[in-house]
Amino acid sequence: MKVALAGNPNSGKTTLFNALTGKAEQVGNWAGVTVDKKEGEIKKNLNTSNVQITAVDLPGAYSMSPFTSEESITSSFVKNENPDAIINIVDSTNLSRSLFFTTQLLELGIPVVVALNKSDLTKKRQTAIDVNQLSELLGCPVIETVSTNGTDNGLETLISKVVEVKGQTQTAPFNSKGVNMSDKKSVDEFDKKRYDFVKGIVAKVEDRKVISNVQTKQDVADRILAHKWLGIPIFALVIYAVFSISQTHLGPLFADTLVGWIDEVYAWAEGMLGEDVSPVLTAILLDGIIGGVGAVLGFLPLIMVLFFLLALLEDCGYMARVAVVMDRFFKKVGLSGRSIIPMIIGTGCGIPGIMATRTIKNERQRRTTAMLTPFMPCGAKLPVIALFAAVFFEDAAWVGTSMYFLGIAIIILGALIVVRITGETHVKSFFIMELPEYRIPSLKRAVITMLSRGKAFIIKAGTIILLTNAVVHLMQTFNWQFEVVSEGVESSSILASIASPFAILLIPLGFGVWQLAAAAITGFIAKENVVGTLAVVYGITNFIDTEEFVLLSGGESVASVMGLTSVAALAYLMFNLFTPPCFAAIGAMNSEMENRKWLWGGVAFQFGMGYVVAFMTYQLGTLVTTGALGVGFLPGLIAVGGIIGTVVYLMIKGNEKADQSIGISA
Ligand SMILES: Nc1nc2c(ncn2[C@@H]2O[C@H](COP(=O)(O)OP(=O)(O)OP(=O)(O)O)[C@@H](O)[C@H]2O)c(=O)[nH]1
Ligand SMILES: [Mg+2]
């Protein structure tokens, strides 16, 4: 049988789904995390019956009306796929809002079992809910659950009730028969009646104790952390701490051990191959595959520590406050506060971040968010950041922090530009972010997030990155006649001849050599490739020093191999971070934007932004540090002038459109 999990956003559907099925779908301490339905079998130890039960996790919805697109996923699933039963997850700390949706679900005729979730929180707050009476008033079973608990969580009872109600016809305590659903006014009126009905139920079954003490503490914390101005420096400090722990303290400590192991694998493979194997093959295996993949894998501990910390921040409720702080700026540039959640998710991986834009109703806001989310430094970009911070800036945590904030600044600027180009400056957004309560973050959840990120990273390193490194190594070893390139004429290799024309374009940015161009290009396949390719083209097998607990104490020698000034290195880092994301993320942009013009416009914008930022960093930085402009200033200036000119032209045209539309409405 099939059972659907439906309920309000953030009520704990996915947590319950994971507990029921043993899966590890993404959970978040805010609304709008799940954007697509997910299926899984209910575990045998919870299901004592002999029928197999498939659970379907759905996006959260506040009502059955097709309001935002995930709400229509939810209502169309429940209406069309005809599940045998519905588990309605009700957030017991927010009974009156949740039951609105419950009364609508009950009208479908499909048997409903209510999971009164987060009952640990109501107990803690001494809110008493009369479960039996609630069950009677609704006309369906009500089971208290704590889906975050491993045991004593009510799940077994819940499933046995689901099996029990199968095949029954649900009756509804409140009926919308006879209401004209296509007429907005009558629907609104009816919703009001429904709400009164729900209020009546809540008044009967719920007995709340007001614990003002806890409430005031939370309010004080909010007044500081979510403060208009204070919130920003606090956030900057928090992010700085995250980068310094993950990239200069705890991360390198673990990385060191890992790199020791990778070195052993290298030595072992070298011994196994012996003298008889051809040197070309040996080089591909050792330097191309083990060296290149190892260079990327060495950063795994840094990434895992970073995600562990970010998960803690999110789980304790802090990230939702950050969203509130940012909301103000986002609204000014025509985005809604809803755009922030995709961006925060995007710091893990851009793809789920872009997919999370689906919860945004306004089309322009949704497309703009999908186009700007990749500017956040995702997990794959972290090795690149860590590498450059280590080689050129002595592991400074400010490098990562400033890339993070620069990403945010670019997003705000980008949104401003887009809203002008589309001429929708008059559209105002009204979104109120709901704040979850502060709580002690769960280490278990943070470890799960960390492990699943780590696993994804290892899989990527063993597949895409391994393959790219091998191909890059081959292309570097051979020329177009398939002869081994001899020393001194490396620029005749296949790789060099492909990358060289692109390198010319990069001269004004300070890094116009084919090796760096090749690494930037492979970065579009996966951003970790930037590190892997640099390792291969410069013949560096690992970037992490095993003698000292730091990334790259031999950084200077690596820096001199690359032949970059630190200003040019910073420009190169920015270029890799702020040009378009990997192809997979561009694919996600395509499916969320559903519009070719927006997609290509977005990718062009990302290229333009990366180019302009790198150009300004390199030229201004060189001017400040050496007193003279960098190479290729004039051609670069012409290119950048062309990019900025195009954007300004489009903005002026958009402005005219805006004036016209206001003129019509006036
Ligand atoms: N204390 C407590 N917290 C819970 C419980 N169930 C879920 N949570 C927390 O509630 C938050 C939301 O959980 P999710 O499972 O992502 O909620 P969801 O309903 O899937 O949300 P959307 O996908 O956004 O609609 C997470 O921070 C969970 O850890 C519970 O029984 N008790
Ligand atoms: Mg969910």
From TrEMBL:
Subcellular location: Cell inner membrane
CDD domains attached to this UniProt entry: FeoB
Main location group: membrane
Top-level taxonomic group: Bacteria
InterPro entries: Fe2_transport_prot_B_C, FeoB_GTPase, G_FEOB_dom, Gate_dom, P-loop_NTPase
Gene Ontology CC annotation, any one: plasma membrane
GO molecular function per UniProt: ferrous iron transmembrane transporter activity; GTP binding
PROSITE patterns listed in its UniProt record: G_FEOB
Keywords: Cell inner membrane, Cell membrane, GTP-binding, Ion transport, Iron, Iron transport, Membrane, Nucleotide-binding, Transmembrane, Transmembrane helix, Transport
Pfam families membership: FeoB_C, FeoB_N, Gate
TM segment ranges: 224-243, 289-313, 370-392, 404-423, 457-474, 494-517, 524-544, 564-586, 598-620, 632-652
Span of domain FeoB-type G: 1-168
Topology of the protein relative to the lipid bilayer: Multi-pass membrane protein
PANTHER family per the UniProt record, alphabetical: FE(2+) TRANSPORTER FEOB (PTHR43185:SF1), FERROUS IRON TRANSPORT PROTEIN B (PTHR43185)
Protein name: Fe(2+) transporter FeoB
Originating organism: Desulfuribacillus stibiiarsenatis
